[in-house]
Amino acid sequence: MKNAFTYRLGIDTGGTFTDFTLFCEQTGKILSMKVPSTPKEPSDAIIDGIEQVIALTEIDRREICYVGHGTTVATNSLIELKGAKTGLITTRGFRDLLEIGRQRRPELYDFYADKPHVLVPRHLRKEVSERITADGNVLRPLDLEELQTVKDALIGEKVESVAVCFLYSYLKPDHEQKVKAFFQTCCPDLYLYLSSEVLPEFREFERLSTTVLCAYLGPVVGNYTERLQKRARAIGLTTDPYITQSNGGIMSCLSVREKPIETALSGPAGGVMASAFLGNKIGVGNLITLDMGGTSADVSLIENGIPQMTTDRKIIGYPVKIPMIEIDTIGAGGGSLAWIDDGGALKVGPQSAGADPGPACYNKGGRTPTVTDANLVLGRINPEYFLGGKMAIYPEMAGEAIERTLCQPLSMDLNRTASGIITIVDAHMVRAIRNISVAKGYDPREFTLLGFGGAGPLHAVAVAKELGIQSVLIPESPGTFSSLGLLVADFRSDFVKTRILLGTTENIEQINGMFPDLESMADKWLSQEKVPASKRILQRFIDMRYQRQNYEYRIELNASRFTPQNFGQVLSAFHEEHKKNHGYALYDSPVEFVNYRVAAYGLVPKADVVSYPEGGPSPENSLKGHRKVCFDPQAGYVTCPIYGMEGLAPQNRINGPAIIEQMGSTIIVPPTERAVVDAFKNIRIQIGGNDKDFS
Q: What number of H helices and E strands is found in the chain?
């Protein structure tokens, strides 16, 4: 009789490749693979990859009990401005707030810089008479006759989705709820988003922008998840996919429809969660992550095992005020195009060749050289082992594209030009890492750089050296590492309300009273996601600031209730956070409590990494051969040993120069550097060739 096994499948869709990680709950075995992405319909690559995984492992598809999915559908819809036709209903006199914003120029000294495209044109922004005051009282009731006229106009324009954002509705949502009841009666199939449900938080422009983004993305993301659900069921899967959120948690497709903006950073968040999981597993709490794929590079910072979070960021220029992992995304991937600007300077990115037509070496019609072409020309990528040998690439096509497009105009030889492409893209990533570390009070030299993605391990050491980072960590399967993050993520949703109170002991009871309603909403959501009570965790946070400041810092509350005895601890934590970010603290200044937050977690079974038997210091069993590789255009090509990741064992030590090949990625150990394989087959590279024992 066949043993009963259950499997968990993580799927991360990128701009160039879609990654899969299959984990067996009983044996702990992990299988990873990649297939080319299908940007026009991402679910095509997903279904094709699932079928390949099933065929390769010969498992019963009914044994797949969980599917986690990181998607770029929301992000791509914003980038390409292909969201739904959206209407807006707002308080009379405020329909132009969406366009006015905060009157900040995108670039202070660039007269030609454009503000982001307004997602709702003016004729679809409608006003109704109503007004809630700043203290939450009704100054003017909602005019239902006007609402009927507005509804008829929007339906006549064939809008697919409607955002509703009234002034001060975060204090009193009654008017928005009346709009919801009205539309549910007459237009039940219309996508409708209320600011009091999406973001019941102060600052009207950010609340409006976030609600409009939800409405703009709702039909696109909702239709995509519905198609994916149906196609997954059609091939015999018995579970619906769960989607990764920007905060690193997962949620059901039903929750995605309710808050589609939560998926804006769905893809990159998986890599950060995998990084935090691995760091905690091996005892490395401070990490800077470098996820370099085919289209972009994502960088983030993990302190003491916890990813940095933010509620103040923009996505493609649009303000979004929901809790997100703080990820900086730049156009620096393997497919980033190399080009010459009008001044004759070599540039790389942000445009990308993507999956179609891809780099010149793919021989699919791409004519402009890319970072991948440069790495191939320099011998760093094995043309016979791309995607484990499943995909043919052509070095001669890469060399021809670089020579024709760049070498001749720049009057440089092929090696110098290819090395220049690498240097420039590395500089872009160094700058991005400084933005999320140095600019926020962190010294990158106190962190380990974790490089993953298809291209991350090719560039990680060079980036680390430029930043003064001494330790580089590469996971066992770097090319598909983000999809592992989908198998270690818990359910998560965040709930918030605003009330500005002075941080004094006289207000303790009012502050304590902010949380019961939030925790009730959190429990209701966890019940909707079918999370058992024993698997629920609720965390409390408060956004705090000095009086008359216009920005806040989020402080976690470690006590279930405030008391006069523990109140000072929270104030001290805020002072220290302010000092870390600004270099000073105003210990005698009044502190305001602004936003009250509850993060709801639903714990799920997680994939794990297993240790391997030790293999001694010699890596000879994994030696595949030698290849000429160029690390420095002045030194030229050097003969370099090539190792296969699958043959390496813990305690193996590799002296640079060396190349380590793996199905979805290539790891570089430059000259003078030294690598060691740890107990979990991660590659650890100590900058400077130190003999430090990592194992």
A: 18, 35
**Amino acid at site 344:** G
In this prediction, residue 3 carries a pLDDT of: 57
414 vs 160: CA distance, rounded Å: 52
What one-character-per-residue DSSP string does 298-360 give? Answer: EEEEEETTEE-EES-EEETTEEE-S-EE-EEEES-STTEEEEE-TTS-EEEEEEE-TTTT--G
156 DSSP β-pair partners: none
Q: What are the residues whose beta carbons fall under 8 Å from the beta carbon of 307, sequence distance 6 or more?
A: 248, 272, 273, 275, 276, 300, 301, 325, 326
Per-residue H/E/C for 244-297:
ECCCCCEECHHHHHHCHHHHCCHHHHHHHHHHHHHHHHHCCCCEEEEEECCCCE
Q: What is the DSSP string of 562-622?
A: --TTTHHHHHHHHHHHHHHHHS---TTS-EEEEEEEEEEEE--------------S--GGG
pLDDT along the chain (695 residues), means of 10: 76 88 88 89 95 93 93 87 96 94 76 84 97 94 95 96 97 97 94 96 95 96 95 94 94 92 90 95 96 91 94 86 91 91 91 85 92 95 85 92 93 95 96 93 95 95 96 94 92 95 93 95 95 95 94 88 87 93 92 96 88 91 94 92 94 95 92 94 85 45
Q: What is the DSSP secondary structure assignment for residue 141, as one 8-state letter? A: -
Instruction: Tell me the Cα Rg of the chain.
Output: 26
Closest alpha carbon to 215 in 313, 142, 124:
124
Handedness of CA 489, 495, 499, 502 (dihedral sign): negative
Two structure tokens written together for 321: 């005020």
Residue for token digits 């490089």?
Answer: 451
H or E segment at 501? strand 491-502
User: Which three-class secondary structure state does DSSP give residue 380?
Assistant: coil
Residue 537 is predicted with a pLDDT of 96
Which residues are registered as beta bridge partners of 642? 625, 659
* Of 487, 482, 480, 464, nearest in space to 684 by CA: 464
Q: Mark out the alpha helices in 468-514 (DSSP H runs).
A: 481-485, 508-512
Distance CA 141, CA 124 (A): 23
Strand partners, 19: 12, 34
Q: What burial letters (b/e) apply to 507-520, b meaning 16+ CB within 10 Å?
A: bbeebeebbeebee
First to last CA, the chain: 40
pLDDT of residue 385: 84
Structure tokens at 516: 């019961």
Report in angstroms the alpha-carbon separations of 372 from 300, 375, 376, 615.
23, 5, 6, 33
CA angle 662, 665, 666 (to 5 degrees): 80
The tokens describing 435, both together, are: 């933005």
Q: Burial code of 36-48, b = ≥16 C-beta within 10 A, e = fewer?
A: bbbbeebbebbbe
d(CA 139, CA 338): 59
Give me the pLDDT at residue 293, please. Answer: 87
Q: For residue 693, how many other CB atoms are within 10 A of its CB?
A: 11
Q: According to the model, what pLDDT value does residue 693 have?
A: 45
How many C-beta atoms lie closer than 10 Å to residue 52's C-beta? 15
Return d(Cα 457, Cα 481) in angstroms, integer.
Answer: 12
Secondary structure string (H, E, C) spanning 47-79: HHHHHHHHHHHCCCHHHEEEEEEECCHHHHHHH
Predicted TM-score (pTM) of the model is 0.89
